[in-house]
Design goal:
This protein has 315 residues and is an alpha+beta fold. The chain has helices at residues 2-26, 44-51, 59-77, 92-104, 140-143, 149-175, 192-198, 242-250, 252-256, 279-288, 294-298, 300-303, 306-314; strands at 32-33, 109-114, 125-126, 130-137, 180-183, 203-204, 210-211, 219-226, 262-268, 274-277. The strands form four sheets. The chain has a four-stranded antiparallel beta sheet, with helices on both faces. It has a two-stranded antiparallel sheet with strand order 1-3. The protein is globular.
């Protein structure tokens, strides 16, 4: 009963409000929009509603999902709190304060990059192309139980917590006189793995997830878009590019995917971009299991030390 009440609140109030805020942002004169060649965002919640198959998680999972949607709602609503005349250039002291704010909010690993318009989903928009990319680890023990109720709780716990962190970081940045917008890890307006790869934090594996030295693929990504034009953007060659060659020889995620949704060869998705993921097979199961995560559990980088894998492979 309580689970149904929470679900109905999300369906009838929070989710429609989030969509309205998204559309309002897209229609803003100065917003930065996705292109015709951008990837289409898979509307997980909307598709679940259409199919009548809302995720069957625990009551705790429902509360976590509600917390995530509330965080998305707050992220859009708070845009009106941006300074009217926001600053664009940060001093060294201000940049240091921002890093302290990020770490105080529980984010240990982060980087900076310039956002490309094609990284924004089709029909979506953001306020700024200066991006802080945030990573937050998921609990390894519960991910090891995938797919399960416990795994679903771990997934949605990080969606909620990292979303709160992104909102809190935005508040701290605004207090310094800069404008910012939180990009929630759930239903973000841009495609996070390529953004994080561009920021030098890792490399995208065949399962479509970013692989990092710290967590493998066992984490979620959020962003903060800001008016600060002189962030210490990552530049140069990404040292994690070797992962692309490793994934060609591994194939563990392909073998272990319960829906055979990870392909051996890339295929074009509806927007024309190439991917190894068959969305029609992946996302319904992702919805049904409240976050599946088998590919994360089985990934070689989740079960072995990054440096050791790299050393042995490059030999």
């Amino acid at each position: 009963m309580l689970g149904n009440i929470i679900t109905n609140m999300m369906k009838k109030f929070l989710f429609p409000k989030v969509l309205k805020y998204e559309n309002d942002l897209y229609n803003l004169k100065n917003s930065i929009r996705g292109t015709d060649t951008s990837t289409m965002r898979f509307e997980i919640i909307e598709e679940a509603m259409k199919s009548g198959q809302m995720p069957k998680g625990s009551i705790r999972t429902k509360f976590l999902q509600f917390g995530s949607l509330a965080g998305i709602f707050e992220g859009y609503k708070s845009i009106r709190d941006n300074p009217v005349l926001s600053k664009e250039i940060a001093s060294k002291e201000e940049l240091k304060k921002i890093e302290q704010i990020i770490m105080k909010c529980g984010v240990k690993h982060f980087s900076y990059t310039k956002l490309l318009a094609e990284m924004i989903f089709q029909n979506k928009a953001v306020l700024y192309d200066n991006v802080i990319v945030l990573l937050m680890e998921m609990d390894k023990k519960r991910i090891a139980m995938a797919p399960s109720v416990q795994t679903g709780e771990a997934v949605h716990e990080i969606y909620r917590n990292l979303g709160y962190s992104a909102n809190d970081i935005v508040v701290g940045i605004r207090k310094l006189g800069f404008a910012a917008q939180a990009g929630h890890p759930l239903l973000g307006s841009s495609y996070y793995p390529p953004i994080a790869q561009k920021a030098g934090l890792g490399w995208i594996g065949k399962h479509g997830l970013l692989i990092t030295p710290w967590y493998g693929p066992r984490f979620r990504i959020a962003t903060v878009y800001t008016s600060i034009k002189n962030l210490p953007f990552f530049e140069g060659e990404n040292s994690h590019k070797w992962i692309e060659d490793f994934c060609r020889t591994c194939g563990r995620c392909i073998e272990k995917c319960p829906m055979s949704a990870i392909l051996k060869e890339k295929k074009d998705n509806p927007s024309g971009n190439s991917t190894y993921i068959d969305r029609e097979k992946c996302f319904p199961y992702f919805i049904k299991t409240s976050g599946c995560s088998v590919c994360i559990k089985e990934c070689t980088f989740n079960n072995n030390e990054y440096k050791k894998i790299k050393t042995n492979f490059l030999k």
